[in-house]
Amino acid sequence: GALAGARAVHGPVDRDRVFLMGFSQGAALSYVLSLLHPAEIAGVIALAGFLPAGDRRTQVNAFPRHGYLIIHGADDRLVPVLHAHRARDVLQSLGAPVEYHVYPVGHKVAPPGLKDIRRWLTTALEH
Q1: CA distances for 104 relative to 50, 55, 110, 112, 120, angstroms
Q2: What is the pTM of this model?
């Protein structure tokens, strides 16, 4: 996988420092990768994204150590905020740690969301 490639180029990779961040479709991919390879990923930041519906990988009991930071716009017309609610609810029902924020913007990241990302990553990297 990607970590094996990184190890080949850079040497050992500290899995506690590998975070995925994706916007829209990139968030969906980040969710799927985190469910397929939870031991290799420290956490996920999902921005304006969705957890693919009907994905059997949601039948798991292992998650990235620091869980998920989900940030979405309440006025998002491309990926409606209901997708973020669903992702939060599914992940929490499976026992994953989730921090969740919705801001009054469309399909973009609001400035307070950038502060959330910085704080969440800083906290995760300190623990």
Answers
A1: 18, 29, 8, 10, 20
A2: 0.88
